[in-house]
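Reopening: Type-5 uracil-DNA glycosylase still failing for me.
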Amino acid sequence: MSHPAAPGPADRDYPALRAPGARDLEVLDARLTDCRACPRLVAWREEVGRVRRAAYRDETYWARPVPGFGPADASLAVIGLAPAAHGGNRTGRLFTGDPTSDFLFAALHAAGLAALPYSHSRDDGQRLYGTRLVSPVHCVPPDNRPTPAERDTCRPWMARELDLLGPTLRAAVVLGGFGWQALMPVLTAAGYVLPRPRPVFGHGAHARIEGPDGPLDLLGCYHPSPRNTSTGRLTLEMATDVFRRAARLAGSAG
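Support: Ran it again with your exact input. Result attached.
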């Protein structure tokens, strides 16, 4: 009897079939970095890696899906949007190597959650304490805008990542409305009971959600994009306050 071939990285259903069975984050990240399920994102991430920004023309870009970053027993998750073209897509680590990451890690360091106040490269010695960076979409999208179909195709990676973190996870900071909306169906599918009406995103928003491993405190923070930080919509003090609050709720450092 013949058996169907195992899904390959270019299959649209590769995330749905390969993420749930990952026994730990190391296996999950290895499978994730092979993923080629979204043709538009694959083409764009590789194009950015070939046509490099002048400042990085001598560097070899990662140009693959970017996995999460942080310990496997984290009690706090920080959920973003997607890797940046010349940040995570270049370095291979989320929130690394661009102005957004400089701002984020300055806030995380001030809150006692990061070893260094910057994140420049994968070998810069940066460490996160009790905290893991998570992304709803793992490939850089054109114009920083993944389509709903791309978000949904990528969802199993975040779902399994949060499932593996579940026994220790106690709080999550969501950076921006996109991540907030992407997280809700993941929490529902994982057995969390969302309050009615459903929590609405806002800077400083807070909702406590009951789940299979205990309650999860969900906090909102404006995304540390240059647009938000250069206009003062999000200041370093504002972001640091959210992370300190989250750290206290999670029982993390800070």
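The CA atoms of residues 115 and 127 lie 5 Å apart. If you still see a failure, please send the error message rather than a screenshot.
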